[in-house]
Write a structure and sequence with these properties.
single chain, two-stranded parallel sheet, 365 residues, globular, mainly alpha, 2% strand
């Protein structure tokens, strides 16, 4: 996979290059005229407190207040919602370095990924590098990797089990963060073997050891403490743990896929020489979709991931600015005769994703 990533190149003409230069100029002009930072502001601090509270407060209640099974179940669902919100609205910006101008704060809040049971280094490679550099390219972008019962890439093998994936996909989406508890190990071993870990100045053995330690601490806190401090039985604790992760995974996976696996989002492949004949910025425009831009609560909760075009073009700008930047990007695309893929509402995007799942499950049948 990494060798493929290294050999893929974006080669374009001067007109294609001009779009990237123009959209950057227009966006940076906005910040200059407003005299504001591209990073977060006080609203990000408030969001961080609320999202972390939505995750941590229900957990503290579970540990300190005797509650029944049904209330306990509700609290685990709230934890899952808070965990997803923390991942999308706090961790995501921090690991892109866009939360704050202070890198120590980005590093600290990027570490909230450990509250999801996942790993910072793996995320940086899979998301920041593979996904953002080679969006929707089968065999490189792991976010559209087709595994088992779900086929997200049109160039992946089609199997009978995919025929009804538009129905069963959402159950398996819920396993996203749950599976990462173990998948992180195999993923890191793959990165170690490919030389990616050393390329980024990390010691493979040390990174693997840190992963083991962090995951053991996470499991002790999230499973061990309820077993030690509450009257819940082991199967109840494990059920709550699963439901919490399933809630998080379903939210995260659905939101991510609604930006890239929808109608109009292309999945181009490089030619035999490993070349994508397009400019990188136009490639991002062609493979990504915005949705529900007027839904303020949705934008707030999912960390601006419904402004995915703006995020992919400017990943180092905090998501709180994307609503203001989107008309600028859309108008610039229009001036260059480029398609700006916008689904008006959340439900339009969701329906489009379901339709695309159906198409991907039945091609060639």
């Amino acid at each position: 996979m990494y060798m493929k990533m290294k050999t893929i190149k974006f080669i374009c003409n001067d007109k294609q290059k001009l779009f990237a230069a123009t959209v950057r100029k227009n966006v940076f002009k906005y910040f200059e005229e407003k005299g504001i930072s591209q990073q977060g502001n006080a609203s990000m601090v408030i969001k961080t407190i609320l999202m972390l509270s939505a995750y941590i407060v229900p957990f503290v209640v579970l540990l300190t207040v005797p509650v029944g099974a049904w209330l306990g179940l509700l609290l685990t669902v709230l934890m899952g919602i808070g965990m997803a919100g923390t991942g999308m609205g706090v961790m995501h910006d921090a690991l892109h370095g866009s939360y704050s101008r202070w890198q120590w704060l980005n590093k600290l809040l990027g570490g909230t990924i450990y509250l999801l049971g996942s790993n910072v280094f793996n995320w940086r490679i899979q998301h920041n590098i593979l996904h953002h550099t080679h969006t929707n390219i089968h065999g490189v972008d792991e976010d559209i990797a087709s595994r088992g019962p779900i086929r997200l890439a049109e160039h992946a093998p089609l199997r009978k089990i995919h025929r009804y994936q538009y129905i069963h996909a959402f159950f398996f989406y819920g396993l996203m963060t749950f599976s990462k508890l173990t998948k992180d190990f195999t993923q890191l071993l793959k990165y170690n073997k490919a030389g990616i870990t050393r390329k980024h100045g990390m010691n493979p053995t040390l990174e693997f050891t840190k992963m083991v330690v962090y995951k053991l601490i996470y499991l002790f806190v999230i499973i061990g403490l309820p077993l030690l401090l509450t009257d819940f039985k082991c199967w109840q604790v494990l059920t709550g743990f699963f439901i919490m992760h399933w809630t998080t995974g379903c939210i995260l996976s659905t939101v991510f896929q609604m930006a890239h696996v929808v109608e109009g989002a292309e999945q181009p492949m490089p030619n035999e020489k490993g070349i994508i004949e397009n400019d990188w910025a136009i490639h991002q425009l062609a493979t990504t979709s915005d949705f529900g831009r007027n839904n303020f609560f949705l934008s707030w909760y999912i960390g601006g991931l419904n402004f995915q075009i703006e995020h992919h073009l400017f990943p180092n700008i905090c998501h709180i600015h994307y609503r203001q930047l989107s008309p600028i990007v859309q108008q610039t695309a229009k001036e260059f005769g480029l398609t700006y893929n916008l689904k008006p509402t959340f439900f339009n995007a969701f329906a489009s994703h379901v339709k695309r799942l159906k198409e991907l499950g039945r091609e060639g049948v």
